Amino acid sequence: MSDCLFCKIIAGEIPSLKVYEDEHVYAFMDIMPLTKGHTLLIPKTHCKDLFEMPEDVARNLYAAAPKVANAIKSAFNPVGMNTINNNGAEAGQTVFHYHLHLVPRYDETDGLKVQWNGR
Ligand code: 5GP
Ligand code: ZN
C-alpha cells in the first residue's frame, strides 16, 4: 500500500534498524522503544490488523516470532518478554499495518510504564 508507513519501511523508502528478515516478514527496532530492544514484527503483505490477516500470513508471521525473540534475547539479554498487538484505534493502534510488539523485560527498573499482570 503506497501510503502505508510500514510498507515504506519494508520497501526501504524509510530507514529502519533491521532485526530479522525473511521472504514473508520484516522485524525492526521501534522508534520509541518501551524498553531496550523493543522490536516490531510485521508481515510483508499489507494487512491492517489481526481481523484482516489471512491464515498463511499469520502462519508465516508466527513461524518467525521465536527467531526474532531469540535474536533480541541474544543481543540484549532480557529476563523476559511481552508480546503485544493492538487492533483498532480504540485499542491503541496507531499504524494500520499489522505489527506484533516484542518488548524485552529486564527487572523492576526497566522503566516500562505499561503494566501487565501487575508488573
Ligand atoms: P501501535 O501503537 O500501532 O501498536 O504501535 C505503533 C508503533 O510504531 C509505536 O510503538 C511507534 O513507536 C512505532 N513507530 C511509529 N512510526 C515509526 C517509524 O517511523 N519507525 C519505527 N521504527 N517505528 C515507528
Ligand atoms: Zn502496509
TrEMBL record:
CDD domains xrefs: HINT_subgroup
Pfam families (alphabetical): HIT
Every HIT domain range: 5-113
Motif (Histidine triad motif): 97-101
PANTHER family: ADENOSINE 5'-MONOPHOSPHORAMIDASE HNT1, HIT FAMILY PROTEIN 1
Protein name from the UniProt record: HIT family protein
